[in-house]
Specification:
6 helices, oxidoreductase activity, single chain, TauD/TfdA-like, 6 strands, Double-stranded beta-helix
C-alpha cells in the first residue's frame, strides 16, 4: 500500500481511523456485525454499557432502537518495536466492504480520524492486494493455530455450518 498509495498511507498515519457501527438492542443473525449492544457489552443496562464502552475508548450515542458506537481515532498503522518496523494494523477493508445491514452503510463505517471519507477506489484496491497476499490454512478437526497479530492480519472465509471455532487473545 505504501508503494502504490504513499499519500493515502501518509494520511492514515496523520489522521488515524474512526470506526462507526450502529447496533440494535438484540443480536441480528442477518447482519455481518451480528451482535446487538446487549451482547456486545454483556449487559442490558445502558449505564453499564456506557462504562464498558468508555473503558474501550468507545463513545456511544443512543438511538430509538439501539446505539451508534464510535471508536477512534485509533492508529491504522502501528510501530512494532520487536521487528523495528511499521505494521498494517486495522480492520479498514473489512468494515468498508462488509459492515452492511439495515442500520449500517459500510462506506460510512470507517473514515479517516478527522471524519473525512476514505477513497473507495483505494480501499477496493487494498482488498485486492490483501486477497493476493492471502494464505489459506486448510483446517482439520482438532487443529490449533497461533497467530501473531503484530506479524499477520487474520480473517475468515465463508463457510458452510456447522463450525465451531474457539479463540483466545493473549498478551
Amino acid at each position: 500500500m505504501k508503494e502504490k498509495y504513499p499519500d493515502f498511507v501518509r494520511r492514515l498515519e496523520e489522521h488515524d481511523l474512526m470506526y462507526i457501527r450502529v447496533l440494535g438492542e438484540d443480536d441480528d443473525p442477518s447482519s455481518p456485525i451480528g451482535r446487538g449492544w446487549k451482547s456486545t457489552f454483556l449487559t442490558d443496562d445502558k449505564s453499564i454499557a456506557e462504562k464498558r464502552a468508555a473503558h474501550l475508548g468507545m463513545k456511544l450515542e443512543w438511538t430509538e432502537d439501539g446505539v451508534k458506537t464510535i471508536m477512534g481515532p485509533i492508529p491504522a498503522i502501528k510501530f512494532d518495536g520487536s521487528r523495528n518496523r511499521k505494521i498494517w494494523f486495522n480492520s479498514m477493508v473489512a468494515a468498508y466492504t462488509g459492515w452492511k445491514d439495515l442500520r449500517n452503510d459500510p462506506e460510512k463505517a470507517v473514515t479517516f480520524g478527522n471524519g473525512e471519507p476514505l477513497p473507495s477506489d483505494v480501499i477496493h484496491d487494498c482488498l485486492r492486494i490483501l486477497e493476493e497476499e492471502c494464505v489459506a490454512i486448510p483446517w482439520k478437526k482438532g487443529d490449533v493455530l497461533l497467530i501473531d497479530n503484530w506479524a499477520v492480519l487474520h480473517s475468515r472465509r465463508s463457510f458452510t455450518p456447522p463450525r465451531r471455532v474457539l479463540a483466545s487473545l493473549c498478551k
